[in-house]
Amino acid sequence: MIYPLEQHIFTTGGLAFRTVAASPGISRETRAELEARARYYDRGAEKEPPPLVFRSFPLSSTGTFAVSLLMDTGAAFSRARGNYLAHSYVIPHALLDEVGANLAWIAAYLPIRTDYQPRSGVESLEPLPCEVDAASQFRLVAFLVRDLGPTGVHQLLGALLEHLANPQAQGPLVVEMPPPPENLEMLIHETLRGPEGHAPPPPPPDCLRLWRLTAALAFFPTVFRQTASFTINETQVRRQDTLGSTCALFVLRTPQAEVLASAPGQGRQWIDHCIALVSQGHREELERLQAWLSQLLRTPSSAALNGGVAFYQTLVNPLHGLGGPLPYTAVVACINVFRASPGVNLALLYEAAQA
Known about the structure:
globular; single chain
């Protein structure tokens, strides 16, 4: 389905940075929120090319989210260097629902008008027609496992799970990722080529970080992603980028040798099972598991997630369980977890048990 996305462009318009173009459907309140998030652009070190920054954040004026792309545009009318452009989109609820609230996957589809030439006043922009293939986000999970390795993905998912399941109990999560592997082109060809044998070209490092976060979030049931916002390719964590967010993720631009230090024990069964499915080539089964868990879970709980995986392995689809169906005592144990968790779709659970 094609969704119209309201657009907003913020850059140098004469002597100062301002809104130079916006869709008619953007209210004064929404415009003020978009401007507040666009007023800062970190160009990074002088010896490095300026970054392509991705930001997603909640909009209190619409009750939904926005995605902004920011890029250096070089010279401006009033200065020889230092100009940048922020191109923002208001994401409708229906599109968020279609992709299971994976905002990073939506961001991968959005263009940035770095060639835009401001005019006097605020130009009217037609909404951008946007069609996102929600299922294709799962194609990236196989790439991620090959790219970071099972250990790296385990650490990444563990850190994300701990944060997404307890967003109110901690500050923003800083995700550090290694530089692109030397065999990046080969990995893309082996994991992302289409039916005709064509594969996308290797992305630049700034876009690779977006791919990696998209793939990591694709593993999670929808409820874990519904409050998550992100900032990708900044060099530091800024308080401004966490305002209004109950769950803020930062993927910094500085390459690190390791992905993350360690993975917590909570959610280990779910993580192990997901990585095993991908490693064994059962991507479609992972997609079915994620869809079933998205229907089951109403709140982001690590315990309920583990219980859901155990229940799914035992009664819904035991063929892809690790080591076969679980014993009766394990089934009773996971049902007891659900009884203690208020955020579970019990009707779905009983339907699966009766089947």
